Amino acid sequence: MKFVSYWHDTAPAFVGGATGPVAGHYDVAVIGAGFTGLGAARKLAEDGRSVVVLEAQHVGFGASGRNGGHLNNGIAHSYLGASAEYGAEKARALYRAFDAGIDTIERLVSEEGIDCAFRRAGKLKLASKPQHFEGIARNFEAIHAEVDPETALLSRDDLGREIGSDQFHGAMLQKKSAMMHMGGFVTGLADAARRRGAVIHEHAPVTARREHGRGWELHTPRGKVTADKVLLATGAYTTDAFGWFRRRIVPVGSFLLATRPLTTDEVAATMPGNRTCVTSMNIGNYFRLAPDNRLIFGGRARFSARSDQQSDAKSGAVLRRALAQIFPHLAEVQVDYCWGGMVDMTQDRYPRAGFADGVHYSMGYSGHGAQIATHMGEIMADLIVGRIDRNPFADLPWNAVPLHTGKPWFLPLVGLYYKALDKVQ
């Protein structure tokens, strides 16, 4: 078993990084070479701005290369809950922003010729308990009538043609949802940004910053740059140099495994519908087939704020038990990959984007970011140059998490709370 991301291990490496020292002055400095940062860098460079990307590790190292490979449309929240909190108009706007995110990815895949197995597969929100199906059905009725007619409600009997498990009591199908090879896409997006003139420095973490005229001077171990404007796109990997954001982002571990490639018969017995799937538990699971027919199976196996081989291995054991419960016929299947990564959670699990603490930012995707992060990069690029403000999260307040200074000491308590909820709800 490899304790590395399947997406990292099976994608071509980005080879277009700058090899010289970190130096010079730029119109915009982007911190973080994930989907958000690269989406912004490509757009800015295409518009003729000088742009530098500073990445602490390698392109796609963080959440963009460690997720489950889903591009699920619509908000992750209850649509009815969003309508009650923000009103129907705002709920529709938030829902459609995630739909637009998938459209942006599809456009870029086509325009840039990115080889990433993009496919509109559809998503199943699976009801883990009978009462969960009742809630899913109410949510479906509002979504289908108000914002997304490309949805369907599936009964337990309907699921037989979709998934080889008797653990679920029905589902909502969102047909616009997609999937892709995340490693292939992030490398292709980096190549596109570089072709348009963006300078990408890997292994160049920003360790400090200070004001420089009307802009910023950013320090890295490989040198420093100055920039008129800065976009922070680091999510759960945000460092102490940006403490304002650290107090508002809670990094939570999310863990995955990938089996050996399944046989044709095993695919038919496991995922005949070949869609992305998410269960309805608070501490639930998500899964899909990879392009080579591995089952990629993930979840919040442990409430941890770290991901390393020891932590990933413990979480992998938890995931294996969950996989065996959902798919008993795969209980003994060989697991080839096991990995983890950090999710940038906000208190209410809505993303945040805008301008604060002297920098532009987009983050807090809360486990639902792969589908909107690239899109938000383009939106922030337009905002930075003053072209248009299309930011769907601009009016959401963002207060610091009480007693949180950047290290989420409270995560084990949160985990116990959600486990208790799953037992009674």
From TrEMBL:
EC assignment: 1.-.-.-
GO molecular function: oxidoreductase activity
Residue stretches making up the FAD dependent oxidoreductase domain: 27-383
Broadest EC class assigned to this enzyme: oxidoreductase
Keywords: Oxidoreductase
Coiled coil segments of this chain: none
PANTHER family (UniProt xref): FAD DEPENDENT OXIDOREDUCTASE DOMAIN-CONTAINING PROTEIN (PTHR13847:SF281), SARCOSINE DEHYDROGENASE-RELATED (PTHR13847)
Record protein name field: NAD(P)/FAD-dependent oxidoreductase
Organism the protein comes from: Paracoccus broussonetiae subsp. drimophilus
Taxonomic lineage: Bacteria, Pseudomonadati, Pseudomonadota, Alphaproteobacteria, Rhodobacterales
